[in-house]
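User: quick one - fold this with pyridoxal-5'-phosphate bound?
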Amino acid sequence: MTWDFDAVVARRGSGSIKWEWYDPDVLPLWVADMDFRSPEVIIDALRDRVGHGFFGYDFAGAQLREVLVAAMRRFYDWEVAPEDFVFLPSLVTGINAVSRAMAHDGGSVIMQTPVYPPFLTAPTNQGLRSITVPLPVQVADGVVSYAIDFAAFEAAIEPDTNLFLLCHPHNPTGVAYRREDLARYGEICLRHNVVICSDEIHCDLLLDDRRHTPLAAISPEIAAQTITLMAPSKTFNLPGLKSSFAIVQNPELRARLVKACEGIVPHINLFGLAAMQVAYSQCDDWLMALRAYLTSNRDVLLTTLRRDLPMLASTVPDATYLAWIDCRAAGIAGNPYQFFLREARVALNDGATFGPGGEGFVRLNFGCPRSTLLEALARMATALAR
Ligand SMILES: Cc1ncc(COP(=O)(O)O)c(C=O)c1O
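Assistant: Sure. C-alpha cells for the protein plus pyridoxal-5'-phosphate:
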C-alpha cells in the first residue's frame, strides 16, 4: 500500500493550534504536529467507536496492555510486563507527574539545555528546583552538532538532586543517543541515586535505518531507576487525542507515580485508547513509509539550506521531524524567530524558549508535505536576501 504524504490538506478552520495561532498568510512550521492525515485504520477505528453511540467510562484493559508489550518487543527488543504501564493523558502531564512523585521532600531536578520547554517548568511547577547544564555545541561547515559533557553533568548533580529529565531522542537537537551514552547517563545517575525520567515520545521517528534503544533496556539496574514516557501522538499524528503512557518496571517507583496522579490526572479518554490500540498493532507499514518520507524531507531541507540559505547552520537530526537552526551568523538584527515571522511570514519556534543555549536559534518542523517545506524555505531565503 502507498500513502500520499505529498497531499496538501487545508487545516485552517479545523480548530488547529498550528494553523490558527498566526495570521492566515503565515505558513506554520512550528508546534510538533505534522501535516499528514493519520493512518486510515485509526480513522476507521475512531469512526466505529463513534458509531457505537455509547461514551461511558473506559479503561486501558488487558488487550491494550498486550498490544503495547508486543510493540515494545517488536520495535525495540524490549521485554516489559503488562503491569508496568501507567496510562496518562499527555506526556507533559507525565513530566509534571513524575516531578511531583519525586517532590516528596523538596530537592532539585537536573536537565541539559537547550530542551523541550515544558522540561524547564515541570520541576518548579511541583516545588522543585531546576538545574540546567548546557550541552556543548559545535558549528562547522554549516552543521550544528551537540556533544555530551558527562563530567559537567555529574559535577552539576547536587546532594538534593533526585531526578534527571532526559529527552531521547532529543528535542530540539534530533540526537538519538547511542547505547554507550545511555549507559554512562545510567551509571552516573545510579551512583548519585538520581531517578531518570526518559521522555521517549520521538522514539518511533528515527530517520535513515536507525533503531531506537530505550534507556531502560540498557540494564536491569538502570531499568529499576527509570520512568520511561512514550506516546503514539507524535508518531501517528494524534496529539489532540491526548493519550500516552509511562513504563515503570520498579513497582515502588510505579506506586509513587500512580499516587502523584491520584485525583488530579484524568484517564485517557475512550478515543485516545481506541486509537492507541490500532496505532501499535496495525500501522507498522504506514510508519515505515512516514520515516522514509521524513528522511527525504530532512535531506531536502539540508540541501536547500546549504544552497539557498548558507548563512544558516542546521543540525542533521537522527530522529524527529525537527531541525534546530543556528541563525547567529546570518546578520539578523534581533530575534530570528520574530524576523522570519515578520519578514517571511513563516512561523517557527523561538530557540530562546528552549532554555540557556537556545538564543539565536529557531526550530523548524519538517513534518509536512515537501511543497510546504520548500515554500517556507523560499520565503525565508527571500526575506534574508532583502
Ligand atoms: C519531547 C516532548 N515531550 C512531550 C511532548 C508533548 O507531548 P503531549 O502532547 O503528549 O503532552 C512533546 C511535543 O512536542 C515533545 O517534543
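One thing worth noting: The radius of gyration is 21 Å.
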